[in-house]
Amino acid sequence: MADEIASVVDTRGRILDAAERLFAQHGLEATSMRMLSAAAGCNLASTNYHFGGKEGLIREVFRRRLTWLNRERLRVLDEMEAAATGRPLKPHLILEAFFGVALRMAADSEGGGATFMRLLGRTYAEPSQFIRNFLAEEYAAVLERFKRALFRALPAVPEAEIVWRLHFMLGAMSYAIAGTDALKLIAHCELDEANPAAALAPRLMSFLLGGLRAPLPAGCTAQRAKPDAKVRRSRRAA
Q1: Are 205 and 159 in contact (CB under 8 A)?
Q2: Rounded distance, CA 70 to CA 133, Å?
């Protein structure tokens, strides 16, 4: 019985690893179930048995990594907020909790994190309605937490503007982690391939923070900072 369970786990793992790799390389639509089965060393019936078809397999490929990624983001944010003892976090700390965790995952070439983050970046650029809905569900809770943290950190910036900037930052990260081919074309030179993730992370984080702190666009007025609950209570008492 134990051997049978181990065999099932091994087969599922091989299929998920192969799917992750092929989806990142060819895209979700261009990768067929037959390609996946051949790469995983199993038959097509086995792949369908374990995941119930391609959509079920796609969900599991993303859920396997996103569950850890989003839990880790929230864990880091929780620790930062606990250390702040009620004060709003600095914007750079919030970005570190959200984007820094993802970039560390993207640097994991041995554990599969790098492949998954390339897949995630590619998927953001060419999402189907199915995957768009799925990712919206997976990200709903974590994005709400981080939006609230940014609203508190930047009380003079309209909340709608913060949402726009978060949208732009997600796009920039997705494009950056999808690969360096475009950068090679722009630079007309070979980049340091020894540790591309190490070169990417500090540059991208600096870029994202600059975008978050950029002046408001014309016609977008700053909103007055709202006092927090403690300040309001002290004012009423006075």
Answers
A1: no
A2: 17
Write the pLDDT tens digit of every residue in 66-96: 999 999 999 999 999 999 999 999 999 999 9
Task: For tokens 């726009």, name the residue.
Answer: 164
How confident is the model at residue 232, as a pLDDT? Answer: 44
| Sequence-separated (6 or more) residues with CB below 8 Å from residue 65 | 105, 112, 113, 116, 120
Which residue from 161, 181, 190 is spatially nearest to 25, judged by alpha carbons?
181
Residue 110: pLDDT band with limits 50, 70, 90: confident
What is the phi/psi pair of residue 223, to 5°?
-100, 150
Closest Cα partner for 181 from 196, 198, 203, 202? 196
Give yes or no for a contact between 33 and 54, defined as CB atoms under 8 angstroms apart. yes
Tell me the three state secondary structure of residue 191.
coil
In the structure encoding, which two tokens stand for residue 182, read together?
């475009």
How far is the C-alpha of 208 from the C-alpha of 206, rounded, in Å? 6
The rounded distance, in Å, linking the Cα atoms of 135 and 139 is 6
pLDDT at 8: 47
Residue identified by tokens 């937490």 is 145
Region 94-102 average pLDDT: 96
The DSSP symbol for 1 reads -
How many whole angstroms separate alpha carbon 224 and alpha carbon 238?
A: 22
Domains and CATH numbers, the chain: 1-52 (1.10.10.60), 62-228 (1.10.357.10)
Greatest alpha-carbon pair distance for the chain in Å reads 75
